[in-house]
Design brief:
It is a single chain. 32% of the residues are buried. With 317 residues, this protein is of the alpha/beta class. The chain contains 16 helices and five strands. The chain is globular. Helix 4 packs across helix 5. A five-stranded mixed beta sheet has the order 1-2-3-4-5, sandwiched between helices. GO terms for molecular function: phosphatidylinositol bisphosphate binding. This is Alpha tocopherol transfer protein like. InterPro entries: CRAL-TRIO_dom (IPR001251), CRAL-TRIO_dom_sf (IPR036865), CRAL/TRIO_N_dom (IPR011074), CRAL/TRIO_N_dom_sf (IPR036273).
Length: 317
């Protein structure tokens, strides 16, 4: 199949050459990884620079052959996210890509009207942010603080939307695609009534997205200040976790020294015994809100054509 073909940009009713001749050329991929990260990607992700575009084309061909109605972006850079997330295993990368779209179809409360301006109240609350400093492995730290959420203000799905957009922004970076991310979840002050909003249905959906439906490598989940009820919360989550992911959960309680063994003080704000100043959410909020047009453009390419069939869907869990 020619690298210039684009089976997803043509509607089922528009098959004439004149309809296709106005399709824009896909952007040419230019690697932005440093030499060290190229080496890391080769060693950890089985990514060979000399075969990279061949691998992307192979995945593109599989999409067009097996899921011609998927409605996905087929740009090199976009498909690379899925190959890297599954260590260049074509079949697993394809399944991840299909799951990515299945998630977006199956949970409209989260994915409809998904743009930064729509979740501005969540960002302003400080429920989710990204720390300004990377950890020693070059990974961003996503900080989640459930105590910042007031359930009477908006439903829990708004928090999930904010987390999802945060991850979408982070995964645009090739460095993040290779290094992965770390999550810091601060459960200080989380009551039983608030925890009750995160029931099995929501838990299964969230885990389905993060574990099987999004091209990001979550390398560690550090939980701090968890109350006793967190054991109940984790009991809800754990059945849906793969063993590898479950083993990346670290429960630190109120022990900052334990936290610092995983995330050093130089990366953390003062609130967590760190040395990088007060926790400031404004920089990340401004960055994400300034990306509105990027999201509108990117997500406009992910609208499924009207003839989607059950063949195009995979069960997440």
């Amino acid at each position: 199949m020619s690298g210039d073909s684009d089976c997803t940009r043509t509607s089922p009713s528009a098959g004439s050459p004149s309809d296709n001749e106005f399709l824009p050329d896909r952007p040419k991929y230019v690697c932005s990884l440093s030499p060290d990260l190229i080496t890391k990607a080769r060693e950890q992700l089985q990514e060979k620079p000399e075969w990279r575009l061949r691998d992307v084309q192979a995945l593109r061909d599989m999409v067009c052959k097996d899921y011609p109605s998927l409605g996905t972006c087929l740009d090199d850079a976009f498909l690379l996210r899925f190959l890297r997330a599954r260590k260049f295993d074509y079949d697993r990368a394809l399944q991840l890509l299909v799951n990515y779209h299945t998630c977006r179809r199956s949970w409209p409360e989260v994915f409809n009207n998904l743009k930064p301006s729509a979740i501005k109240p969540v960002l302003e609350s400080g429920f989710v942010t990204v720390l300004p400093r990377l950890d020693p492995e070059g990974r961003h730290v996503v900080c989640i603080r459930p105590d910042r959420w007031t359930p009477s203000n908006y439903p829990i799905t708004e928090n999930i939307r904010a987390i999802y957009l945060t991850l979408e922004k982070l995964i645009q970076s090739e460095e993040t695609q290779v290094n992965g991310i770390v999550i810091l979840a601060d459960y200080k002050g989380v009551s039983l009534s608030k925890a009750s909003h995160f029931g099995p249905f929501v838990a299964k959906k969230v885990i389905g997205v993060l574990q099987d439906g999004f091209p990001i490598r979550i390398k560690a989940v550090n939980v701090i200040n968890e109350p006793r009820i967190f054991k109940g919360i984790f009991a809800i989550i754990k059945p849906f976790l793969k063993e590898k992911i479950a083993n990346r959960f670290f429960l630190h309680g109120c022990d900052l020294n334990s936290l610092h063994q995983n995330i050093p003080p130089v990366t953390l704000p003062e609130e967590y015994g760190g040395t990088s100043g007060k926790l400031d959410i404004s920089a990340w909020n401004e960055l994400l809100l300034a990306s509105e047009e990027d999201f509108l453009h990117d997500f406009s390419q992910l609208v499924l054509p009207c003839d989607s069939s059950p063949h195009d869907m995979l069960v997440l869990v």
